[in-house]
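[step 3/7] inverse_fold.run input=structure_tokens len=195
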């Protein structure tokens, strides 16, 4: 009996969940057809129906990661400086789900650095993130919550602060629990307002 489109979509959903679980537990380097098949409880032969090559699996995994990142609920406590704070909080590994996402992103950097097309994609993605922060910085400057100055530099600094804190929290979660991450963010923002 032929499978229906719904069966195919359900199976793709199962494969997506297995890909996500492998990336969350083993990082990007551990993403193999064999590992995904084991997580799925299937054979690698079944998996090659969806991903004929490791590169196809990696491309799919990155799409899945970006889709999940963009669809996560976002904080919206206000405008200006509060919105900038929310944007950084949304990046930090403050929950188990955000920690998994960040572990996967950080572990994918190695692939991105080795692949010029992927590297260019990541550069565009991070530029979009800076643009989102830039809008919040400009609003905070217009509200008098941040000093005048080059808003693009402040946005780049906020993104660099967030990514640096992500890396520290992933490698040393005992030293950078969620409360400390939030405290460090608030001190960082207070330092911006006092200049």
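[step 3/7] decode complete -> sequence:
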């Amino acid at each position: 009996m032929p499978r229906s489109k719904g069966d195919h979509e359900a199976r793709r959903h199962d494969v997506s969940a297995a890909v996500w679980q492998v990336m969350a537990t083993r990082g990007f380097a551990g993403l193999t057809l064999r590992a995904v098949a084991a997580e799925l409880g299937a054979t690698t032969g079944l998996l090659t129906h969806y991903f004929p090559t490791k590169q196809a699996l990696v491309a799919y995994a990155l799409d899945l990661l970006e889709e999940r990142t963009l669809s996560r609920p976002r904080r919206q406590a206000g405008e200006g400086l509060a919105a900038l704070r929310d944007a950084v909080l949304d990046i930090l590994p403050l929950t188990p789900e955000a920690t998994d996402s960040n572990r996967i992103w950080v572990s994918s950097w190695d692939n991105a650095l080795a692949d010029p097309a992927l590297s260019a994609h990541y550069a565009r993605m991070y530029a979009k993130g800076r643009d989102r922060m830039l809008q919040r910085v400009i609003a905070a400057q217009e509200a008098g919550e941040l000093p005048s100055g080059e808003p693009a530099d402040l946005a780049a600094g906020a993104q660099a602060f967030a990514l640096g804190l992500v890396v520290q929290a992933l490698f040393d979660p005992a030293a950078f629990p969620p409360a400390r991450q939030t405290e460090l963010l608030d001190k960082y923002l207070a330092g911006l307002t006092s200049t």
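[step 4/7] annotate
Residues 42 and 158 are 44 Å apart (CA to CA).
DSSP finds nine helices and no strands in the chain.
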